[in-house]
Amino acid sequence: MLASELKDTTVAGDRIDQLVAGHRPGHGLARAFYLDPEIYERDLERVFRRHWHCVAHESAIPNANDFEVFRMASEQVIVTRTASGEIHAMLNVCRHRGAEVCTKDKGNARAFVCPYHAWTYGNDGALKAARLMPKDFKREDHGLKKLNVRVVEGLIFISFAAEPLDFSEVERLLRATCGQYGWGSAKIAHRQSYAIDANWKLAVENYVECYHCGPAHPEYSETHALEQPLHLIEELNARMEARTCALGIEVASGNHWQNSTGGKETIHAFRYALYDGVQTGSKDGQALSTLMGRFTDFDGGVTSIHLGGTTFLVCYPDHGMIYRFIPKTAETSEMELIWLVDGKAEEGRDYDLEKLTWLWKVTTDEDKAIIEHTSRGVRSHYFVPGPIAPMEQNELRYINWYLDEISRPA
Ligand code: FES
Ligand code: FE
Fold first, then answer.
1. Would you give the distance in Å from CA 330 to the centre of its chain?
2. 99 CB under 6 A from ligand 1?
3. Which residue among 154, 164, 175, 224 is least enclosed by CB atoms within 10 Å?
């Protein structure tokens, strides 16, 4: 590294550390955290490349040799299923001179031939052929860079880290939550991407609190109990837990939280009740699809999981939601929503796609709008973050978690 680069890095590092130190406890993040390219680079280093990300449900690549390319920040990741059914993730970067090896977004292929000089990689990433290279060239040393992969309850997770965060508690909690809802044998009913004109944290922060749900989400508020007094929420939750228990199902109840300071992946899992008589997240509260997993009836509950820095999961007894938050640039991001139903459910017979997707489409259109309203406001030179409300306790925890993550060296 040149001395000038070292100096710049240090100056940027000091500046970011000062911004973190200047954070006012109990308040939102200062505007630099949503605009500054150097903070964005640190986010990528210490959040994006440290944590696990859910990229898809495995039904996105159901057949032998299926693949899909996922674009996240400046990275492209090819996720494949080999002929033997194993799932691999690798960077779409040729080990010769760096060209994109895979030029299609998705498809079915046993091998990827680089369009530049035709180095050929198997769909497990191994370099199979490299034309006209010297005799001592070692193909085995030039496979595509592999990423860590875990598949749990049908969810494909990847990590860029050389030493990935311990995933065991996450796995246990996913089995105790998504596993009860049968996500391992679910299938994708619909996927939708939303371009967000805002830093990725403004999108995530919007999803960790429901202080905004009353004013911003009239449709969602019809079925999801939000701004009730605490004792009423507790009563609703107790009735939900009794119904779940009567079904003979134990979904990890209570509030589970694990930080990543001990080298383990972060997870927050919790349950909450819908209004009495509401079965699922639909327009009229009535069922949307066939029951999933161990559910033989509706329990009127929702299980919510926030995992790592970019993955949110929501389980209803008849469908599931995956939310992916994808950084793009310092001031832009993307969200992908994935709707899951039981693997045997058939569109038209067991579910109506329009009804299934109605609630989270209308809610996400509203969320995109408020995230972008906030982004435009935060760009003001005069923006000063205000106090976090008591109802935003998860937002407060998120902010503290985030500041801790970017303060710890990679
Ligand atoms: Fe891929 Fe040359 S860059 S073969
Ligand atoms: Fe919202």
1. 18
2. yes
3. 175
The confidence band for 7, taking pLDDT boundaries of 50, 70 and 90, is very low
Q: What is the pLDDT of residues 221-248, one digit of tens each?
A: 999 887 778 889 899 999 999 999 999 9
| Ligand 1 atom having least distance to the Cα of 95 | 1
Q: Which residues contact 408 (CB under 8 A, 6 or more apart)?
A: 46, 261
Ligand nearest to the CA of 113: 1
Q: Measuring from atom 2 of ligand 1, which residue has the nearest CA?
A: 117
Report pLDDT for 273.
94
Listed range (94-103, 244-253, 362-371) with the worst mean pLDDT: 244-253
Can you tell me the distance from the alpha carbon of 319 to that of 201, in angstroms, rounded to the nearest whole number?
Answer: 27
Under 8 Å between Cβ of 284 and 234 = no
Taking phi over 0 as left and psi of -120 to 50 as alpha, with beta for the rest, 326 belongs to: beta
Dihedral in degrees, nearest 10, Cα atoms 401, 404, 405, 410: -160
93, 117, 120, 127, best to mutate for ligand 1 pocket (most atoms within 8 Å of CB): 117
Angle between helices 353-378 and 200-208 (to 10 degrees): 120
Determine what percent of the chain is predicted with pLDDT higher than 90.
Answer: 90
Q: Which pair of structure tokens corresponds to residue 119? A: 């180095």
| Phi/psi at 157 (5° precision) | -110, 140
Is the per-residue pLDDT at 10 higher than 90?
Answer: no
d(CA 69, CA 86): 16
Cα angle 69, 73, 78 (rounded to 5 degrees) comes to: 20
C-beta of residue 241 within 8 angstroms of C-beta of residue 253: yes
For the ranges 3-7, 22-26, 259-263, 357-361, the lowest mean pLDDT is seen at 3-7
Distance 70 CA to ligand 1 centre (A): 20
Look-up of token digits 């970017």: 406
CA of 305 to the centre of ligand 2 (A): 15
Q: What residue spans define the domains of the chain?
A: 53-148, 167-407
What's the topology of domain 167-407? Naphthalene 1,2-dioxygenase Alpha Subunit; Chain A, domain 1 (3.90.380)
Tokens linked to 12: 């940027």
79 touches 88 (CB < 8 A): yes
First-last CA distance in the chain: 18
